[in-house]
Amino acid sequence: xxxxxxxxxxxxxxxxxxxxxxxxxxxxxxxxxxxxxxxxxxxxxxxxxxxxxxxxxxxxxxxxxxxxxxxxxxxxxxxxxxxxxxxxxxxxxxxxxxxxxxxxxxxxxxxxxxxxxxxxxxxxxxxxxxxxxxxxxxxxxxxxxxxxxxxxxxxxxxxxxxxxxxxxxxxxxxxxxxxxxxxxxxxxxxxxxxxxxxxxxxxxxxxxxxxxxxxxxxxxxxxxxxxxxxxxxxxxxxxxxxxxxxxxxxxxxxxxxxxxxxxxxxxxxxxxxxxxxxxxxxxxxxxxxxxxxxxxxxxxxxxxxxxxxxxxxxxxxxxxxxxxxxxxxxxxxxxxxxxxxxxxxxxxxxxxxxxxxxxxxxxxxxxxxxxxxxxxxxxxxxxxxxxxxxxxxxxxxxxxxxxxxxxxxxxxxxxxxxxxxxxxxxxxxxxxxxxxxxxxxxxxxxxxxxxxxxxxxxxxx
Length: 461
Prior knowledge:
Layout: E1 12-15, E2 24-30, H1 34-39, E3 42-43, E4 56-62, E5 65-78, E6 89-95, H2 100-110, E7 114-115, H3 120-127, H4 133-144, H5 148-158, H6 161-185, H7 196-214, H8 217-225, E8 227-233, H9 239-247, E9 265-269, E10 276-280, H10 290-304, E11 308-313, H11 316-327, E12 334-338, E13 357-359, H12 368-383, H13 396-418, H14 423-441, H15 447-454
Parallel strand pairs: 1-7, 8-10, 8-11, 11-12, 12-13
Antiparallel strand pairs: 1-2, 2-6, 3-4, 4-5, 5-6, 9-10
């Protein structure tokens, strides 16, 4: 996608609410000419400037034609610089639906506005200093959030936690550059040359901080995509009933006939600290017919990429046999589930089983919380638990920039410790690390970075 140049003084318009049927919609206008443009389509003609941040009832019509009424709504004025974009902004509240918001946008375009590109309102907020690039991306993450984990990460990034951490890292990179410059320019000042160990200590701290941020990537992936938890075991061991019980609704056909489940069924469970993508699979057994065998092959593929496997069985021996069969396809942690405990009068002995086991009943709901607790612990062992004080790295762009910055810092440290090259030459790696952090934060106006970031936004944001 080719975006227009970043330096703009035109006025843009877009519908800021999702398309489709609804009671209300919001049309947003931003730019230096909002007063002149909006006064052509709004009546009674308001006295500009309007009182800031106060909704006023109005009639919206075709440009300079008060008879051609499009809608009756509300107009709110946000003067520069106290607006989302940092420019003059007008928001028109209209009735929702497919036609009215688009007709209002068309009237504003006819009056002199330009249709906004995806993410252009937020892009202008960045260019006008209202947001940094990381917080702008958090806006998109917040809109796209499909779980509490994604929502928490987006809110934390929107608060500026990651920006502040990266600014601190960038300041430390500058500190290293300053120390090297002092060592080069003033070698005889004070106590002579700067001890190399001091610069190495600062560099070690920097690398450790970058490593802490990169260590949050697995947790971020789990928050975005969910942890894949596969229900496995022999046919007719209660896998489908257990999935329905965990989901709180009947999502899978349950039958006493072995082999009923022929394909994998996924259910996304909202769960803390990560969502769980629960997968019911065909029962694992030999001698299956050709159709059932296809279902078993699907099960095996899911097992190969599972974060955790819940092995279902009705006895300790059956559980260990099923776990052995599962081990042929995955090294993921196993959690056992003794299903149908409502049909037996005693607790199944689990001391010989080498993994945690929950005794559950899909009918009565026994043991479901215990089972989920075991699964959560197992997921934490595969994805890691991020430090709550460390912002989460949620995007591939962030990960790539931090990885490159780390590589440059490591290269600098090795050369500096070995005294292998002159200081001015070695300092090139420090400057390169700083440049990657600048690109990440958005300090430098890099055209392709803006193109990648804002082309993924929705229209009107």
